Amino acid sequence: MKDSGTTGSGFQPRWVVSSSPHIRARDDTSRIMLSVILALLPASIWGVYLFGPPALLTLTLSVAFCLAFEAASQKLLGKPVTLWDLSAAVTGVLLAMNLPPTSPWWLIAAGAFVAMFFGKHVYGGLGHNIFNPALVGRVFLLISFPAQMTSWAVPRPPFGTGHIDAITSATVLGEIKTSLMVTGKIGYISTPVWDLVIGNTGGSRGEMSALLLLVGAAFLLARRIISWHTRVAFVGTVLVMATVGHLFYPDKVAHPLIHLFGGGLILGAFFMATDYVTTPITPLGKLVFGIGCGFITFVIRQFGGYPEGVSFAILLMNATTPLIDSYIRPRVFGTGKAKP
Q1: What is the residue extent of each domain of the chain?
Q2: Model confidence over 95-126: pLDDT tens digits?
Q3: Separation CA 279–CA 267 (nearest Å)
């Protein structure tokens, strides 16, 4: 910053250098969070179309409960209320996308409370949490209320007229897991891949439109809100493991495209594993993080007790982020290779 000053002989320019950073970006927390909400909007609207008013109510209640518990937690801990940063709203949208579209209000409230208080504010609030809050809420609900968390409504046929929300249906990954546990084989899968892409299957809102989620992810990538490292490593690891497994054991490992579009991989890789706080800071660290997420996801899907492993994988890798950052450090400018 240039300042002016005078000496005995007249005017002399003077430079005042403040502490870093010296390069400032337009994006702040609220702008980034708003971008994430906008990126999730197409898939959210599509989910409301497929499941009708219950899905809209689930989304509305999830955001409202997260905002309320955010404010209550900050008041309880004697901190200023910062709902304007939209971080709680993003958690609400992501939590809703991980819930059955017809979830009861009490289930949504319980997940929002755990996400905001135990997933975020017990660690000190935004910027201090070590786990993704929405995933903390989702995993808590899955373990505590498995029946309610695995009751999937049948969606309205895309571009059709019918809508039945009283009939429940297992997800494709759920059917595969059941078949593996009963017969040791995946059995015949009748669901076309295109139905998985557009959401013509049962599942949470975040599993209903891989295509629209990818459109939203492209928006975030274009705005440089997220980078490609974790996403490519996450998805690529799952696809490589599924491809190799399917080639050698086609009756035990589902087709790679089913692993790609049949669950929450797209939502997890592009929207849940993008938290700045809970993921590594270096490009190489992000690659390691993504590979770990992909490996754990595939192992849980194939050998674990749950049909889906994305949430567990991200949370487990969140716990390793400090370790990754401690061993993979950027080189200090003007020095030699960084040492751990």
Answers
A1: 29-148, 171-326
A2: 999 998 889 999 999 999 999 999 999 888 88
A3: 16
